[in-house]
From TrEMBL:
Pfam families in the cross-refs: Aldedh
Residue span of region Disordered: 1-21
InterPro entries: Ald_DH/histidinol_DH, Ald_DH_C, Ald_DH_CS_CYS, Ald_DH_N, Aldehyde_DH_dom, MeMal-semiAld_DH
Protein known as: methylmalonate-semialdehyde dehydrogenase (CoA acylating)
EC number(s) stated in the UniProt entry for this protein: 1.2.1.27
NCBIfam families: MMSDH
Residues in Aldehyde dehydrogenase domain copies: 21-479
PANTHER family registered for this protein in UniProt: MALONATE-SEMIALDEHYDE DEHYDROGENASE
SUPFAM superfamilies reported for this sequence: ALDH-like
Amino acid sequence: MSKHVTHWIGGRPAAGGARRRGDIYNPATGKVAGTVDFAGRAEVDAAVAAAADAFPGWRDTSLSKRVAVLFRFRELLKENADELAGLISSEHGKVVSDAAGEVQRGLEVVEFACGIPHLLKGGYSENVSTGVDAYSILQPLGVVAGISPFNFPAMVPMWMFPVAIACGNTFVLKPSEKDPSASVRIAELWAEAGLPDGVFNVVHGDKEAVDGLLEHDGVKAVSFVGSTPIAQYIYEGAARSGKRVQALGGAKNHMVVLPDADLDLAADAAVSAGFGSAGERCMAISAVVAIDTIADDLLERIRARVERLRVGPGDDDRSEMGPLVTRAHRDKVASYLETGVREGASLPIDGRVHPVLGGGGDGFWLGPSLLDHVTPEMACYTDEIFGPVLSMLRVPSYESALELINANPYGNGTAIFTNDGGAARRFQNEVEVGMVGINVPIPVPMAYYSFGGWKKSLFGDSHAHGMEGVHFYTRTKAVTSRWLDPSHGGVNLGFPTNG
Ligand code: NAD
């Protein structure tokens, strides 16, 4: 049965037909599973208007009442986690257990946001001058927008809206048009939790919807997560129209393996972090940087593990890795295997011949692959592949590994595998990357830290969630007050000083 997904505006599904629609695929079969409405300016205006109407009431809702809604939302997310994971898997392709992990990491941001009364405390100084007190308060911005990528249809929006809404803002989400259903189910859960109509809205679509939000005077801040060219476009466009902006971009994550590392641990990590979610994670390991002396040994351990990996439909319990998100993306990722070999790399692990449980049919399949002897000028290294392709680079020393990473334009995540604490400490200090793992391949920060990369992996000043999220979604007001002081000294045109 074909499904149809539409916008969620003012606490209910939008009425009326859409001018434009997109197809939603089941990546495991390659078949169209439904359609999604694409918003134009009218739908964006309606969503922003609903959010603007809801703002004064939500801003003035007490912290205790806001938190009560957040706690209920948290419970509902937990109760409905399996359903959400199933929805994500059916449109994205990732295996259900992996989708459940993404729901869990999003839920942790909701739990962080449940502590908002503590996080929104300002400062207070008594007697900054005689009988004068000074204090600061954190106030919401108004209507804020989030634009998210296909690869985490639940978790990435949940990096944004729990904190934004807890701070008293109202929210318009524009999720990826490739897997839009989770966002609407989340909107229903918000409504069930008692969130007032209009506080959380969803508009679907593509560039037209994004540009509508970017150019809308009523939107005060934009959070974006996606590829680097679009992140830069969002950053520049939002800044031009005077909005606060955080735009998280693409990645090329390196994993350095030093000779003293536990090579079984490193091989497990490379396979898990390279091929989990078919490599469609912004924190996926893409480049394995091995010191020459252990590279052959590491490659054989990786190969042995890859041979055992079960690739198949996301809803098959036996599957460890699913298909890619679209046919076009699958073909682009596979093309790097050809260009890599043409440019001089070897292909010891070719995912095009990896078996697929159930045969695969017309699904968007590409098995785990590894290009070896990759060098920095090859396209498979310079481009973000965003698929199940590991590139192995062989280097003579720690210094050359570090130089390679620091010269790379991206700086999202990285990891080092070693048993030398001194080397690990040096790496954490010297590497120019926002998120660092030490014997941990996917160092995604917990909700109470903040998530974000450096260099071309982030445009803007704030990382997502944690205290940086609270700061992003609030503005500080500093108040100076005098009560009960009759000795104000009369008229004085001089600049106020303290006494
Ligand atoms: P994308 O940049 O193609 O799309 C992201 C969002 O932007 C979507 O909502 C999409 O509809 C919209 N968009 C696409 N083209 C646009 C255009 N021309 N103008 C305006 N809006 C446009 O990214 P994607 O393919 O959905 O996701 C994968 C990318 O996201 C990868 O590069 C990955 O590294 C990155 N990502 C980064 C992080 C991070 O935290 N840094 C997290 C997840 C994903």
